[in-house]
Amino acid sequence: MTMRFGYIAAISFVATIISSTILYAEASMRSIWDGVYTNAQADHGKVLYSNYCAKCHGGTLDGADEIPGLKGSNFMADWETESVADLVTRIHSTMPMDNPGALSISSATDLVAYLLQQNQMAAGNTDLPADLGILSQIRIDAEKPSTTLTR
Amino acid sequence: MSGYRLLKRGLLCVAPAALLVSVVAGQAVAQGAGQPSTTKGDWPMYFADPSGSRYSPQDQINASNFNKLELAWQFKTDQLGARPEYKLEGTPLEVNGTVYASAGSRRDVVALDAKSGELKWVYSWNEGLRAAISPRQLSGRGVSYWTDGNGDERIIYVTTGYRLVELNAHNGQPIDSFGEHGIVDLKVGAYTGVIGQPGVYKQIDLTTGEIGLHTTPTVVDNVVLVGSAFKEGGQPLDYNNTKGLTRAFDVKTGKLIWTFHNIPQKGEPGYESWEKNSADYNGNTGTWSGITVDRDLGLVYLPIEDPTNDYYGGARPGNDLYGDSIVCLDINTGKLKWYYQVTHHPIWDFDLSAPPLLADIMVDGKPIKAVAVPSKQSFLYMFDRVTGKPIWPIIEKPVPQSDVPGEKTSKTQPFPTKPPAYARQNITTDDLIDFTPELRAKAVDIVKKYYKGGAMYTPAVVSNPKGEFPSAGLEMGSPGGGTNWAGAGFNPETHVAFVPAMNGTGLLSLVEPPPGFTDNRYLQGVGGQPFRINGGPGFGSASDAPKVGVDDQKLAAILAAHPQVAVGPPPPRTVDGLPLTKPPYGTLNAIDMDKGEIVWQVPHGDTPDAIKNNPALKGLNIPKTGQGGVVGEAVTKNLVIIGDPEFSTAPGHPRGAMLRAYDQKTGNEVGEVWMPAPQSGSPMTYSYDGKQYIIVAVSGGNVSGTYLAYTLPSGN
């Protein structure tokens, strides 16, 4: 009995360590280069882009005169070191300019997946979650970091 | 009888000719007791003084202490307007201890304590739909100030909905005796068609009619000078668009003094430069940048923009005066004194984008009252501002001709002999990205595959509907080239102009719009890609706007009937994400206006992170590239103060942007101060209560519009 109890305790202890490690790893920063979205999600983002964003930012994301482009070095410079949550929040609360708030957090997240795809970050197997807490732990890097932070 | 009703009945004329008001010119009024000036330490106009100099003779902040500047206060604009603004482009004013500025996404006006930044009053007007669909959104580029020198002080500005408003500078309340309780409706008198022709003349709808303005009026003595602006010009839906106007109003009463028709009416000089009477049914050609004034001479100087359709002029054959012209008018009458058109038959979006600089110079020992006009094509066009005669010869030279059906380009364009171009004007192989031979080869390949031309004044092409050559005409220029809305400045003591410039490519491409959508034969677009209206920010892009514009609905219906599918991905405009052309991307250029020579040129702004950290460029020693972006300056006794247009992370600094000070004589950077975001509005400087301050607007990325005020630490 004592052995089993000890055995259970040991397993519980190990399980706690493992889950703490998972939680801890979840709490450490990932990069947008870590395959953080799926192509299917980006496809949905593309539809949203076409309906809400292309009117000002252009069909090819190049922007125009007073409107910033959404791909390339200038865009990445604007957002470098911010988190995906920052970008999602910005889109959700201020964009499109004629109807801010029309894009839910979930839609804004799918849009960001599309932007990541257009900015050459590789897709992965999991969608970007519509969860600002988790998104705040994904960092926007203009260049792929030399040490990729993964779970 | 109101001016509006006169027009409705088809009677002549917009400008009540009887109302010629004599303006008190001469030194006495402005320099008299009670009038603010930069000499007193104020900054009473957007560009410091009527000459457009952006100069103040302050020197407490100088090369020896610029690095010691600390933040005195900051004013965040988040709570103004329905949601925060991320494009704060204003230059505040300061008069005698109070700062006045435009701010927020609804273009509120604020008054702040000059020492502490404390908010003293706010004026906010929700104009509803009229502002929501205005072509010129957000907080704009500043406000204007007037005083009678005797305690009556007013703030004057143009709202998003294009109304001229006067506020009591002490408390922000509208001046009841000005216009209608503080308001003049500037849309009254804006029209399409031909004055005096019922059925052809049309006063624009006061709510939905297209006209607006970012630039604040120029107020000199008792005159308020107001320009006009429209939507971005690449995709006008109707070439019979609102006609550009420049007007003068009485500062006390709001009465219209005169109107200058930027597009001549029949019988006015310049009308015949629009062939087939096309002046009758074309529009735009506004004065969207700053108007400068010579008070002593009683002359005003207008920088005028493109006529309708920035890239295709098939509906307006001829030179199209006064498009892309510097125009000099009599301040009392609005009568034309002289003009010079810098781009004939304008189809390059080479609007005159900057306030003309009025400098008194010495050329070959002779004093000349000059006007120097910065431009998107990187020429500083210089004229005698009394006579309009070029100071150094300007030669008409042959330029590439258009092959677009229905287009007729000017055979020649004017090329100044002096001063030389201050940024690149052509794109040859040698101008393409050159960090590595591989990148250069890729760029050459891209250009060869898709883009035509490269010489200055390469016209737009009909974009190949298969996405093949030619997708666009290639040139150095608008919108990424030369000097844009933030303009330039100069030191009136040394006669040196300081002109910011960008070296960015323009891709000029036209497509046939979907059938039934517009009467324009060609609009800006990319062949092989679904047609889109490029909307904003402007028309329909304010938070109160209708959710789907009328034009969008119309286009959606047409596209549903004639669906368009992309032939593939659009042609590349960058090389592995890097700019197609080689650096420098942004520069600051000092031009000796006496000699017509460039004194120094420096890249302005840190090398962008994307270049610094690019793995393909690792190990290369790349000289400072500067940054492309529209930034303006303040000029003091010895410094030029100008901030970076992009975020970057320099060693020793957190991510942000730097506000830099350059030595006027050498172009050496003598100091820099960190800002949390790029400069988005041009800096100004003032001195109050013994301390000098610099205020600059920053915004971008995740940082909402903020006015930052810097000063030296106390005891310094």
Number of helices of chain A: 6
Give the strand content of chain B.
Answer: 25-35%
Please write the CATH class name of the largest domain in chain A: Mainly Alpha
Q: Label the structural class of chain B.
A: mainly beta
The number of helices of chain B is: 6
Written overview of the protein:
Chain A is mainly alpha-helical and 151 residues long. Mean pLDDT of chain A is 84; it is low at 19-26. Chain A folds into 2 domains: 1-29; 32-139, Cytochrome Bc1 Complex, Chain D, domain 2, CATH 1.10.760.10. Chain A contains 6 helices and 2 strands; from the N terminus they run αβαααααβ. In chain A, helix 2 (39-57) crosses helix 5 and helix 4 packs across helix 5 (105-118). Chain A has a two-stranded parallel ribbon with strand order 1-2. In chain B, the strands form 11 sheets. In chain B, strands 25, 26, 27, 28, 29, 30, 33 and 34 form an 8-stranded mixed β-sheet that branches. In chain B, strand 31 and strand 32 form a beta hairpin. Chain B contains 6 helices and 41 strands. Chain B is mainly β and 716 residues long. Chain A binds chain B through residues 54-56, 58-60, 62, 64-67, 71-74, 76-82, 86-87, 90, 93-94, 96-100, 102, 120, 142-144, and chain B through 82-84, 86-87, 132, 137, 232, 234, 479, 526, 529-530, 532-537, 540-543, 545-547, 552, 570, 573-574, 577-579, 608-611, 613-615, 646-649, 655, 700-702.
Write out key terms for the chains shown:
heterodimer, A: 151 residues, mainly alpha, Cytochrome Bc1 Complex, Chain D, domain 2, 2 domains, two-stranded parallel ribbon, 6 helices, 2 strands, 54% helix, globular, B: 716 residues, mainly beta, 8-stranded mixed beta sheet, 4-stranded antiparallel beta sheet, 6% helix
Write the layout of secondary structure elements.
The complex is a heterodimer of chains A (151) and B (716).
Chain A (H helix, E strand, L loop, with lengths): L1 H26 L2 E2 L7 H19 L15 H7 L4 H11 L10 H14 L13 H4 L2 E2 L12
Parallel strand pairs in A: 1-2
Helix pairs in contact in A: 2-5, 4-5
Chain B lengths: L2 H6 L18 H5 L38 E7 L16 E3 L2 E6 L4 E6 L5 E5 L5 H4 L11 E4 L5 E6 L4 E6 L14 E3 L5 E2 L9 E2 L14 E3 L2 E4 L18 E6 L5 E6 L30 E3 L4 E5 L21 E6 L5 E6 L15 E7 L2 E8 L7 E4 L9 E5 L13 E5 L20 H14 E3 L7 E2 L9 E11 L6 E3 L4 E16 L11 E2 L25 H12 L12 E2 L2 E2 L6 E7 L4 E7 L5 H4 L21 E2 L3 E5 L13 E7 L5 E7 L3 E10 L2 E10 L2 E9 L5
Parallel strand pairs in B: 25-27, 26-29
Antiparallel strand pairs in B: 1-41, 2-3, 3-4, 4-5, 6-7, 7-8, 8-9, 10-11, 12-13, 13-14, 14-15, 16-17, 17-18, 18-19, 20-21, 21-22, 23-24, 27-29, 28-29, 29-30, 29-33, 31-32, 33-34, 35-36, 36-37, 37-38, 39-40, 40-41
